[in-house]
């Protein structure tokens, strides 16, 4: 194990990487702040489209969103703790992962202190076992705050960089790698794992369809839990699930073509 691969500490056969906002949680905490105490949902949605279509970088769009929020950072945390809820299936999935030596690693374009506060509220002390790789923040002398991006990339946090050291391991020691996500911040990680779970009805699916990245759709973590358990139990493989997901996507696309004729 090296400093680039801390999740190997327990010699796992599987590692579960996941986005946080809108994936583990029912709503994106940064979107919630922007919509309610920032410049609102219309401008935010406009920028999401700009990012998906390549006219804005995620980094610049995300900073633009956060710059519209002028409440103190601690007030932001309280607002989110009062309003953000957990995906109905995540707590059970996390308990299962802990019992089966499956490290859960959060890769987020949000900010570490917000994520940690929300996880502590939503799942309690067990949250300390979740590795978080995310952006941070700085409190200024006047009480305002700024995001400090994790790296210099156009994503602000290129999530693929955390996954690649695991992906590059020799086949005889490399664990099976999962990733779950929902949106534009997950674009960089979408091609890096053995099985990508993309949330139904969200922007990540649009990207995967356009770039022909294999994925399987999930609605809640209950879906993910069932699939991961079948893989761990040897009933199927990540490759078989990914292939099935690609076939289902091809069938959906054919049905769309037929309905437009």
From TrEMBL:
Residues 241-261 are annotated as: Disordered. It holds the Pfam family HAD. The keyword Lyase does not apply. It comes from the Eukaryota. GO terms for molecular function: phosphatase activity. Keywords: Hydrolase. This is Phosphoserine phosphatase. It comes from Ascobolus immersus RN42.
């Amino acid at each position: 194990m090296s400093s680039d691969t801390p999740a190997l500490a327990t010699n796992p056969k599987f590692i579960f990487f996941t986005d946080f906002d809108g994936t583990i949680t029912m709503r994106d905490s940064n979107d919630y702040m922007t919509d309610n105490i920032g410049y609102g949902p219309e401008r935010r949605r406009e920028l999401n489209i700009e990012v998906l279509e390549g006219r804005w970088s995620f980094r610049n769009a995300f900073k633009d969103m956060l710059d519209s929020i002028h409440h103190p950072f601690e007030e932001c945390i309280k607002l989110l703790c009062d309003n953000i809820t957990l995906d109905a299936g995540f707590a059970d999935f996390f308990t299962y992962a802990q019992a089966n030596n499956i490290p859960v690693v959060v890769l987020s374009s949000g900010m570490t202190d917000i994520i940690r506060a929300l996880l502590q509220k939503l799942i309690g002390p067990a949250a300390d076992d979740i590795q978080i790789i995310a952006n941070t923040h700085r409190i200024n002398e006047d009480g305002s705050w700024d995001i400090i991006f994790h790296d210099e990339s156009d994503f602000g946090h290129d999530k693929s960089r955390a996954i690649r050291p695991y992906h590059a391991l020799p086949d005889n020691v490399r664990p099976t790698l999962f990733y779950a996500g929902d949106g534009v911040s997950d674009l960089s990680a979408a091609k890096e794992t053995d099985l990508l779970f993309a949330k139904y009805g969200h922007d990540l699916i649009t990207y995967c369809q356009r770039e022909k990245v294999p994925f399987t759709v999930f609605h809640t973590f209950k879906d993910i839990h069932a699939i991961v358990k079948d893989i761990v139990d040897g009933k199927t493989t990540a490759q078989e699930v990914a292939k099935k997901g690609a076939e289902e996507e091809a069938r959906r696309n054919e049905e769309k073509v037929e309905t437009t004729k």
